[in-house]
Design brief:
Elements: H1 3-55, H2 58-68, H3 77-102, H4 119-144, H5 148-172, H6 180-211, H7 217-220, H8 222-256, H9 259-272, H10 274-284, H11 287-292, H12 295-332, H13 340-365, H14 369-422, H15 426-430, H16 434-451
Subcellular location: Cell membrane
GO cellular component, one term: plasma membrane
Main location: membrane
Amino acid sequence: MSLVKNLAQTFGSKMIAIALSFITSVFLTRLLGPEGRGVFAYVSTNVMLLTMLLGFSMTRTMAYFAASGSAEKGKNLKLGVGVGITLLSILLFSSVIYLLYWQESKVVNYLIPKDYQTTILLLFLVGSFAYQSVNNYLTGVWQGSKQFSVYNYTVVNERVISVAVFGVIWFFGLFSENEVIQNVFLTLLAIYGIDLLIKIFFFLKSTVSQIGFSLSAFYKDPSLIKSVLAFGSVGMAAGVLNFANRRLDIWFIEYYQGMQELGYYALSARLSDILLVVLTPALQVLLPYFNSYSEEKGLELLSFCTRIGFWSILIAFIVLILLGPYVIPLLYGAEFINSIVPFQLLCIGLFFVFVRNIYTVYNVAINQQKVNLWGNAIGLLLTIVFDFLLIPDYGVIGACVASIIAYFVSFVFIVGSVVLPAKKGVAYFFIPKPKDFAEVKTFIAKKIDLKK
């Protein structure tokens, strides 16, 4: 299947998925309210961070090895190592968390808000960690082996289940107001379990026979384990720094401003992330192509994606900024009107994040993850400094300004690390060419003809 077709299918499926996810977020936000939305953001953020810390950047690591085809006797041994690392991380995390909870350790306060430390929230913390860990592994294998049709189907499937379940709950008012937060987390956990079973089924049915892998490598060949951990650890460090750069605000806001203000910020962050959620998986489609292309051809593809992506995403974010004051009160209610300005500010910052992410994927493909690591480290340092300076006095608005500064500097560093050594000029990467639009137009025309 061609690159353009894979990009188009992934983008199309993500458009459907994000529309369904958007509807689900409306149901969830109306069910939870500002404070409940803050609790959900707090716990979910911790799960994502812990998954990165213990997962060794599993999505990108598996995508890299699946694309490079490190095989021996028909078995992709490094993909088998990935399974072992994933399962061990889940076992380790579950054991530690339950031990801390049983001993009533104060560490649990940093993972679950103190007033919400129930058995259901604990189960959600562990269950969502396991779900995300396995999902990251499967996503990486599907992307690296170019099985985008399977990946796209499973993404849409999970969103359909969520919309159906929470739509019914909200429409019929099935949750009592006193226990709504607990019930929402329990329902999410059930959805994750169903979705994970479906994904494992497709993996066993459609993927294992195609790529092949051997679990025996995990204990028979330590060199393979070292290879996977060495690659994944750099990606993990870069990912954690990038995550902290984008989500450190959540902890600062909760500490200085409280859970309700965090709820306003969490909604604005979720909405401004819409285009990134749609387009980031599409960017991952590029990884196996960057990985297999020559340096010159890789730069040509990178420049094409930048020229199209830069201006398209700029227009998209401008539209989101203009629609924000109307859409947020309409969908989420007047109680979330304080999310409007933060949403608009975050859209500005995330524009730089998206363009930067194109170059992040390119650096992963050419095994230059240290550049991403340094770029994210610089962004994180700026985030910490400006969060301390701005959030205590300016609250959510200060957090947004801090993010814009950090995102822009990180963007300049990572993009510049590729553009400057290439010595092709800034215009080569950012100014559209007539043939760019002609190629996109030709592809759309072909798709229309096929449908006819």
